Amino acid sequence: MNKSIFIVGTDTDVGKTFVTGLIIKSLRDNGINAGYFKAALSGAREEGNKLIPGDAEEVCNVSGIEEEYSNMVSYILKNPYSPHLAARIENIEVSLDKIKNDYKNLKEKYECLVVEGSGGIICPLKIKDDEVILLEDVIKVLNLETILIARAEIGTINHTTLTVKYLESIGIKVKAIVLNGYNPQNIIHKDNKETIKVLTGVNNFFEIPFVDERNQIVDNYFNFNLLINIINK
């Protein structure tokens, strides 16, 4: 297996990190040497003279990856702002070349990388003078297809459909949608899933139930064979 996948969300705080950890755990539990990568993370935690990227830490805890955090995140930013603003305040120049090289170096160590985005698809990583780098540019430079993480509750039809349509308009394929916080007994959640299928044409869906704690490990919510098929196809 030598393909990778990009995890994008409809918004911030939709559960990208939690679901990314579960995807990697599923791959690793089934014998795939899967790793994690993120281009830019803002709001890192200070410990002494180091910045700890919380998303990478959470993914490693859930999935069992043993890797130096600085190898997995190109830009670890202290301020809890949009990456472009945090980088500007911290005088850090974001470069697509660095992101591409960091990804390439990490890819040599793993069969598959699950790459997590920041915020939604229009999340800016750099806006300076006449240079603009958006999350979509990272996906394109890494030449990846995507799995989209969305909320299950009301409002998700609009957010999810708009995100899928936009990604398609710029030539990025959505291979599956994950509805996070899904309750199969909730008529709204069930209808949201079926309506999104009709409006987007995406038929591969995973449902992750609501959990009380972010570090609660949820097993068996990814059909491994389907997941592998989605990534490899």
UniProtKB/TrEMBL annotation:
Keywords: ATP-binding, Biotin biosynthesis, Cytoplasm, Ligase, Magnesium, Metal-binding, Nucleotide-binding. Substrate binds at residue 42. This is ATP-dependent dethiobiotin synthetase BioD. InterPro entries: DTB_synth_BioD, P-loop_NTPase. The gene is bioD. It comes from the Bacteria. It comes from Clostridium gasigenes. One of its GO terms (molecular function) is dethiobiotin synthase activity. Pathway: Cofactor biosynthesis; biotin biosynthesis; biotin from 7,8-diaminononanoate: step 1/2. CDD domains: DTBS.
